[in-house]
Specification:
Mean pLDDT: 84
Helix content: 10-25%
Order of helices and strands: HEEEHEEEEEEH
Number of helices: 3
Strand content: 25-35%
Shape: elongated
Length: about 170
């Protein structure tokens, strides 16, 4: 019983002791620097693509599907989606659709969009598909941002205009 009374007395003493404490406000700190403005109208992402992701439809066409959840139904219907390809061991971003023609063949890369994904296509008139490997940059733009004064065919201009990451 003595232990119980002692514990009750100790808890009451601690409660009274701390209830009489008041916090004092310190000095106001210096204002911080503003963060970088974002762009809610534009979503971008880089993905890798390898030959193993391409699925043959026939000897003249193959496709590869990339998940990109930032393509909402609204963006797919009213916005703009751009896809850029940088071949493996290359430094230049090519906007799709892209057609490469030579004396004996023509090969075209293009894409389709639906909510949550982009499907890339590789068409060749000679039946030899290159199925490009490298990096893909997908840029999804809301209806509010799609009329921006930028050359959409030039990824570097798009990146600079919307301040996209490297």
């Amino acid at each position: 019983m003595k232990k119980l009374i002692f514990k009750i007395f100790l808890m009451a003493f601690v409660a009274v002791l701390f209830s009489n404490c008041t916090a004092k406000d310190g000095e106001t700190g210096l204002p911080g620097t503003d963060g970088k403005d974002g762009n809610a109208n534009v979503k971008a992402e880089e993905q890798s693509i390898s030959k193993f992701q391409w699925i043959d439809i026939n000897t003249y066409r193959a496709y590869a599907t990339l998940d990109f959840p930032k393509i909402t139904p609204e963006i797919a219907e009213k916005g703009l989606v751009m896809v850029y390809l940088k071949y493996q061991n290359n430094t230049v971003w090519h906007a799709l659709p892209l057609t490469i023609s030579a004396q004996t063949f023509t090969e075209s890369y293009y894409f389709s969009v639906e909510p949550g994904k982009v499907t890339l296509f590789d068409d060749s008139n000679d039946g030899i598909l290159s199925k490009p490997e490298g990096k893909i940059r997908i840029v999804a733009v809301s209806a509010d941002g799609k009329n921006a004064p930028v050359d959409w065919q030039n990824y570097e201009a798009v990146k600079a205009h919307f301040d996209l990451p490297n």
